[in-house]
């Protein structure tokens, strides 16, 4: 069995740079507006072994983060700053995660939002 090790900050920055190099102008403008300095966010139980996952972008109550177990960027909602509530194992590159946000802004719908919203009970 191979022992998993969290991605280093230098390797993460390289992945971000690669993603930026592939972005369209619209994706890059959005990325510049939502990007944050990478910081570790908690995620229980999957993030426990690596002391969390790297958060790299924020928009509203959505965090863009890198899942270094599955080797891809993801988007999750959060209620408390610093805690990723939903675990996803997408293998998305950064520009695809940014494109999903761009689509939601332009078209008003996002599959992540549809999955996350609690069921509404009719009165």
Enumerate the strands of the largest sheet in spatial order, edge to edge or round the barrel. 1-2-3-4
> Which regions contain 5 or more consecutive residues with pLDDT less than 50?
113-123
Number of helices: 4
Q: Give the percentage of residues in beta strands.
A: 15-25%
Q: Which class best fits the helix and strand makeup?
A: alpha+beta
Number of strands: 4
Query: What is the count of distinct domains?
Result: 1
- Radius of gyration using CA atoms only: 15 Å
Distance between the termini: 53 Å
Task: Describe it.
With 123 residues, the chain is α+β, with helices and mostly antiparallel strands. It has one domain. It is 36% helix and 21% strand. The protein has a four-stranded antiparallel sheet with strand order 1-2-3-4. β3 and β4 (72-77) form a beta hairpin.
């Amino acid at each position: 069995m191979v022992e998993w090790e969290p991605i280093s900050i230098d390797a993460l920055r390289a992945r971000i740079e690669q993603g930026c190099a592939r972005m369209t102008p619209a994706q890059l403008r959005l990325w510049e507006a939502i990007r944050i300095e990478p910081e570790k966010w908690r995620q229980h139980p999957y993030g426990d072994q690596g002391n969390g996952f790297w958060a790299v972008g924020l928009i509203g109550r959505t965090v863009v983060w890198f899942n270094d177990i599955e080797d891809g960027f993801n988007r999750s909602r959060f209620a408390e700053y610093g805690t990723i509530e939903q675990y996803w194992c997408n293998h998305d590159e950064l520009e695809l995660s940014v494109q999903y946000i761009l689509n939601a802004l332009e078209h008003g719908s996002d599959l992540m939002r549809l999955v996350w919203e609690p069921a509404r009970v009719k009165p």
